[in-house]
Design brief:
Length: 186
């Protein structure tokens, strides 16, 4: 065999490697986007199913459920992932990876618990869901803080926008939890 044939044979038998992604942040931003996009897609489908179910047979808190699943389950999750990916992309190459799995688990546990509490009329689930959402937001903030400071993204529009998004969402969770005490379904 010629050396060209041997190289070709070796290439065929070698396991396929993924294309290089560049920096670790490129892989991290891809991981952020894929995990949160998958979860957000699930909640978008759930919102659509709830909307169809409510159109067929109206039920208590149906409109609220559709809005909550869309805004908190889908849109907020997409925006948080986008913000975190932006901060990760601007971070130094040696920055630690954020706890993406914990962030997603906490956020999605909150997305489940709050509607469960509303639909079964149990405040404890609303509170537990709110605590999970706030803890997730704290994890997003904590993970982005050193990156924003090191990269200078905090002074940029994207970094400030991401910080404003987290503050707005935390305030919304607190307002929603307070409103749960004054609604007739409790």
């Amino acid at each position: 065999m010629t050396s060209d044939h041997m190289r070709l044979r070796d290439r065929v038998h070698e396991p396929r490697r993924r294309a290089p992604c560049g920096r670790d942040e490129d892989r991290q931003t891809g991981r952020v986007n894929s995990l949160f996009t998958g979860c957000a897609s699930f909640w978008l489908a759930a919102a659509l199913i709830a909307a169809v179910a409510r159109a067929i047979e109206p039920f208590a808190h149906g409109i609220w459920l559709v809005a909550y699943l869309f805004l908190v389950g889908f849109l907020a999750q997409v925006l948080l992932a986008r913000g975190q990916a932006t901060v990760l992309a601007a971070a130094p190459a040696d920055a630690d990876a954020p706890p993406i799995g914990a962030q997603a688990a906490l956020w999605n546990a909150g997305v489940v618990a709050v509607p469960l509490g509303v639909l079964v009329g149990a405040r404890v689930f609303v509170v537990l869901g709110s605590v999970a959402l706030l803890t997730a937001l704290a994890a997003f903030w904590q993970a982005s803080r050193p990156r924003r400071l090191e990269s200078g993204a905090a002074s940029g529009g994207a970094g400030l926008g991401y910080l404003a998004l987290m503050v707005f969402m935390a305030a919304s969770v607190l307002v929603g939890t307070a409103l749960a005490w004054d609604t007739p379904w409790l």
